[in-house]
């Protein structure tokens, strides 16, 4: 469903994403990992049509996003890293507004709103202005809006930032279930433990390039001699030039975890 085909994005003389090739199929949840500035968020913005590639193309289903944005957008639900809501609307009003933007009928909007209210446990907050919401409630509402049209593809950028444990569990369970129901999920995250727990595959970006794509088991084979969690494997992979063939297996370690925000 998602295909990055030799995608490059430049800003002036700076290359933010270089020759990215990555596919995510139906029923898959892929976690996109990388340091600050690695190219994750730029890649996601090209996927959802907020940026255009300088070279190459991004496809969602049969559509090239830059050429068929309207058609592609109907297949995509997008949860950005910073939840945006209209503060003077209630969650109900906001969800109804989004449903109308997607062309749903009044009956379809009512059904969709009720479905998402139940899915994200929004009931008692539905008629309060969103300006009164906690970060977790805002994030739940943004998720509900992204799913109002039942998209085939869900794209989420740092979905766990600032959430309490209850919200994290709710989001984790939902993302895994959504993929298990045959949908396509691409999740950018710096929460490596969650990526290891729920992702089918991980894709690691470093310095604008994709340096690994596969399962955690395959990553362990790629980084011999490093035991433990995905965090340990990630640090080893991105701390040496494995992708340039400069590694001799002597992987250095950091004294602290890196900042992995987009």
TrEMBL record:
PROSITE patterns: ABC_TRANSPORTER_2. InterPro entries: AAA+_ATPase, ABC_transporter-like_ATP-bd, ABC_Transporter_VariousFunc, P-loop_NTPase. SUPFAM superfamilies: P-loop containing nucleoside triphosphate hydrolases (SSF52540). Keywords: ATP-binding, Hydrolase, Nucleotide-binding, Transport. It holds the Pfam family ABC_tran. Its EC number is 3.6.3.-. This is Putative ABC transporter ATP-binding protein YxlF.
